[in-house]
Amino acid sequence: MKTIIIYSSITGNTKKLAHAIYNHKSTFDIMAVEDVNDLKAYDRIYLGYWVNRGTADEATLKLLKDITNKEIAAFGTSGQYSDSPVSLKYSNSVNDLILSDNVYLGGYICLGKIEESRTERRLKIAKGEKHYLTEEGYKRHLESRKHPDEEDIDRLLRWVDSIEEKYEISD
Ligand SMILES: Cc1cc2nc3c(=O)[nH]c(=O)nc-3n(C[C@H](O)[C@H](O)[C@H](O)COP(=O)(O)O)c2cc1C
Fold first, then answer.
1. Ligand 1 pocket test target in 15, 78, 133 with most atoms within 8 Å of CB
2. Residue 87: CB within 6 Å of ligand 1?
3. pTM: predicted TM-score of the whole model, two decimal places
């Protein structure tokens, strides 16, 4: 009975979370989503994604279509504050994408650094237009540069521990 961490990450935020779990749990395996081939050996997956246009990134969406008969706990990063309703919506949307013959064990999401180029692009959008960056939004972009931080990682590892305690893997 084995557990694997699979992660998708383009700028490193979700990879950082994945490796924090890996360093915390010596019996788990780890793999980048692009290297996933055969998951037969695994019962439980910690699935790491990044939020792209309001849902999980494409590589994760693709993988989710192939995952059946597993226990899945999903962790992700986005450009939104960890405790915001939008974050919760993202997390719930990933739950909805998991095929029904899997068992969903829970979700975790936190703020991840938004790339500067993205902020620059948003700053060029005029007031009144879609994706205009408000002052609040700009502050969040700047705050995001510090994330995932130590507190995010602590919360992540506590989340992992609570899942591992609650749902023991049977032999
Ligand atoms: C193409 C693209 C689309 C994004 N879409 C969203 C989005 O819809 N909502 C959001 O909160 N963050 C969005 N972000 C921010 C990322 O989700 C965030 O920076 C994440 O931590 C990146 O994870 P990674 O470093 O593991 O690749 C987007 C970033 C990119 C590059």
1. 78
2. no
3. 0.97
Task: Please indicate whether residue 91, judged by its CB atom, sits closer than 6 Å to ligand 1.
Answer: no
pLDDT digits (tens, 9 = 90+) for 2-57: 999 999 999 999 999 999 999 999 999 999 999 999 999 999 999 999 999 999 99
Q: What are the tokens at 92?
A: 């719930």
Domains of the chain with bracketed CATH: 3-112+148-166 (3.40.50.360), 113-146 (no CATH)
Looking at residue 14, its pLDDT comes to 98
Measured from the Cα of 12, ligand 1's closest atom is 25
Instruction: Using the atom order of ligand 1, give the atom closest to the CA of residue 113.
Output: 19
13 lines ligand 1 (CB under 6 A): yes
Q: Is 28 left (phi over 0), alpha (psi -120 to 50) or beta?
A: beta
Please write the tens of the pLDDT for every residue from 103-145: 999 999 999 999 999 999 999 999 999 999 999 999 999 999 9
Q: Which residues pair with 73 in a beta bridge?
A: 46, 106
80 lines ligand 1 (CB under 6 A): yes
Task: Give, in order, the Cα–Cα distances in Å from 105 to each of 38, 121, 166.
Answer: 21, 37, 9
